[in-house]
Specification:
mainly beta, 4-stranded antiparallel sheet
């Protein structure tokens, strides 16, 4: 079991990374299992969940976009119990490659040379990749869950080998938010839901279409979530946005 971890699907495998487990503490492991594309089921009798020999730096409350076979592990809490006992956060960005093969095994990881430079140590932020740029938005800078959200939005270029370039601050969100989700679809970015400094969950959806790595403005969508939510799962597929579960009022 794991709380406040991150998960993604890629090349026919499902990956679960990091998080917090009460008896073990902050987790560094990567587990993965094959997705049977014929019916969506996971694994088989002889091949269930696998634990990768590759691990990340332990953290919960992380965000992890994937692009061009590279996963980017960003932010999170490195010490203290989830959800309200974080005592140390990190600005270390790690990358690991997922081979396009039949095993699903992750390759070794490395620390990115460039970390974001404003409100560096955040948990509950969210990241996405658009047109070769990595974007990171929102998140919480306090040790509690979450009294100090930020409006900060940053971007960095990615090269063909997965390296993260220098970060640049972009036009900020209009409201300081943590635990929302940043998604990309159709060349645009969408920041969905989350919670403000008072812990009030949000229905808002902000969107923008970057020019390269530059964001000039954010627009508040008229079609918002039907109810406020924070700490939810979300994904984009075929230019549609999907929001699942989470914490309401």
């Amino acid at each position: 079991g794991r709380r406040r971890s991150s998960a993604f699907g890629y090349n026919g495998y499902l990956y679960a990374v990091g998080g917090y487990e009460a008896s073990t503490g902050v987790l560094a492991d990567i587990e993965f299992i094959k997705i049977n594309v014929s019916d969506g089921s996971l694994g088989s009798t002889g091949d269930g969940w696998n634990v990768s020999a590759v691990q990340i730096n332990q953290r919960w409350g992380l965000t992890m976009p994937v692009s061009n076979s590279y996963a980017y592990v960003i932010g999170g809490c490195t010490s203290g119990a989830s959800p309200g006992g974080c005592t140390a956060r990190t600005d270390v960005i790690q990358t690991f490659q997922i081979y396009n093969n039949d095993s699903g095994t992750p390759a070794g990881y490395s620390n990115a040379a460039n970390s974001y430079t404003t409100n560096q140590q955040r948990l509950g932020g969210s990241a996405a990749v658009v047109n070769g740029y990595l974007f990171f938005a929102g998140g919480c800078t306090g040790t509690t869950d979450c009294t100090s959200p930020v409006t900060t939005v940053s971007s960095a270029p990615l090269d063909a080998n997965g390296a993260v370039g220098a970060w640049t601050n972009q036009t900020a969100l209009t409201t300081a938010l943590g635990w929302g989700k940043l998604l990309s679809a159709g060349g645009s970015l969408y920041y969905i839901g989350g919670q403000n400094s008072g812990g009030t969950v949000q229905t808002s959806v902000y969107y923008t279409t970057p020019s390269g790595g530059t964001i000039s403005s954010w627009t508040n969508a008229s079609n918002v979530l039907p109810s406020g939510r924070s700490k939810f799962g979300a994904a984009s597929w075929n230019n549609r946005l999907y929001v699942v579960g989470g914490q309401g009022s």
